[in-house]
Design brief:
Structural class: alpha/beta
Strand order of the largest sheet: 1-6-5-2-3-4
Helix content: 40-55%
CATH topology of the largest domain: Rossmann fold
Number of domains: 3
Oligomer: single chain
Strand content: 5-15%
CATH architecture of the largest domain: 3-Layer(aba) Sandwich
């Protein structure tokens, strides 16, 4: 199953109708005007990403794919990485951000520029451009900022923004630094409007106050009407926050979240969520998604929709080779493929996501079962072996004295109890 090359669905008359069907528009400026705008001649649009971490995460992936969808429709994307806004950070609902050093932010800017660039095309008439808001913010003095930009803002309006209001009602309050964030983001839109004729900004709906800061500023200063689209915040059907795995964000950087972990995250999508995820995170057509929706209802045990989702998104983020390797590793680990055929780095990264131990020269299987937590006692381990419920590297263990020696590529072994309880053994 080869993942699809990104393409918009030709069954829709325009890209606006498609992104609405995919559930990507939670709030926006005038819908009729936006539909006409996106159906007409190419426009320039942008989305900003602040370097508040060394990698983007799945929440940012919504914006990256929306940037790509609009580019595929012929429009011209600007990917903004916030070298200046990243020095401040947008207000969180509950507490002040810890300010990162300039050196850290500079390093993270470069990392994020590389990530954003992977999702856009830099060729053709609508080639993408990457920009850094530090380029126009750094030369601006505080006096010039207050005179040229600050005078257009009314404090009463700023206080009503959701993020600011939430912080004012919290014990932490809000500093003037974070209070000013919306002005900086508004200035970004104004600068991009002036430099590139940018008339649309996209972002998460939780950023709506910051998005409209720019549309309002351009209207006051330039007398022009520009637009904003706020995408929905993705949550699971049970109300839990999307993109979190055991308390950790699912990052787009392979060093912070392995392709195997990325694949497993999507593979474990609940039936109630998988169709919505296919709409937002893949370029499958409406007909294809509706067929997977039918399969979820008629043949849920096959998890066909989850497998396609995992393959598509992992390919989008990490490439076809990595995605196919981790898909093969996933199948092999759960008894549907040849463990010995896997490449060593992929197998090792997969086992790192499981309970695992490191052994010097080998370890008795009973001890390995204990140390990995697959059993709670030596007697339970021996009983599981006697009942035929333990295997190493796909071979059933019949002897309590069996020693695990790391016979798979890279000097590792897969320890299994039952059908789905796995652990890794790294033999040094």
């Amino acid at each position: 199953m080869k993942a699809l090359a990104p393409a918009n669905d030709p069954s829709f008359p325009n890209v606006w109708d498609e992104i609405v069907w995919r559930g990507l528009v939670h709030v926006s400026t005038d819908e009729a005007s936006l539909r006409d705008l996106l159906s007409g001649d190419p426009i320039t649009y942008y989305c900003g990403f602040d370097p508040t971490a060394p990698s983007l995460h799945l929440g940012n992936l919504v914006q990256l794919l929306l940037l790509r969808r609009l580019q595929l429709a012929g429009h011209k994307p600007l990917g903004l990485v916030g070298g200046s806004t990243g020095l401040i950070g947008d207000p969180r609902p509950t507490a002040e951000r810890t300010l990162n050093t300039r050196e850290t932010v500079t390093e993270w800017v470069e990392r994020l520029r590389g990530q954003v660039g992977r999702f856009l095309s830099f060729e053709g008439d609508n080639a993408a451009r990457l920009v850094n808001n530090l380029d126009w913010t750094a030369p601006l003095s505080a006096i010039d900022f207050l005179r040229e930009i600050g005078k257009h803002y009314r404090v009463g309006t700023m206080l009503k923004k959701d993020a600011v209001a939430a912080r004012l009602n919290s014990d932490a309050g809000i500093s003037y630094t974070e209070f000013s964030y919306q002005i900086l983001q508004g200035m970004d839109f104004l600068e991009l409007y002036r430099q590139y004729g940018c008339v649309l900004q996209t972002g998460g709906s939780d950023q709506w106050g910051n998005l409209t800061s720019g549309t309002d500023l351009i209207h006051r200063v330039e007398g022009a009407s520009v637009h904003a689209i706020g995408t929905p915040l993705i949550t699971n059907s049970d109300g839990t926050k999307f993109g979190k795995s055991e308390g950790n964000a699912v990052w787009l950087d392979a060093d912070m979240c392995s392709p195997y972990r990325m694949y497993q995250f999507w593979l474990n999508t609940d039936d109630a969520d998988v169709v919505a995820r296919l709409k937002v995170f893949t370029f499958l057509t409406r007909d294809e998604i509706e067929e997977y929706e039918r399969l979820v209802v008629d043949e849920p045990f096959r998890r066909a929709a989850q497998r396609r989702l995992a393959m598509e998104v992992t390919t989008t983020v990490h490439g076809w080779d990595a995605a196919s390797a981790v898909a093969a590793a996933s199948d092999a680990l759960f008894g549907q493929g040849d463990l010995t055929a896997l490449d060593a780095p992929t197998l090792r990264s997969a086992l790192e996501e499981l309970p695992n131990i490191t052994a010097d020269g080998g370890v008795p299987v009973v001890q390995a079962l204990l140390d990995t937590g697959l059993v709670s006692s030596a007697s339970e381990a021996r009983r599981a072996i006697a009942q035929g419920g333990v295997s190493v590297d796909g071979v059933k263990v019949v002897d309590d004295d069996h020693v695990i020696s790391g016979s798979l590529p890279g000097g590792v072994s897969v320890l299994r109890r039952g059908k789905k309880t796995l652990a890794g053994v790294f033999v040094s």
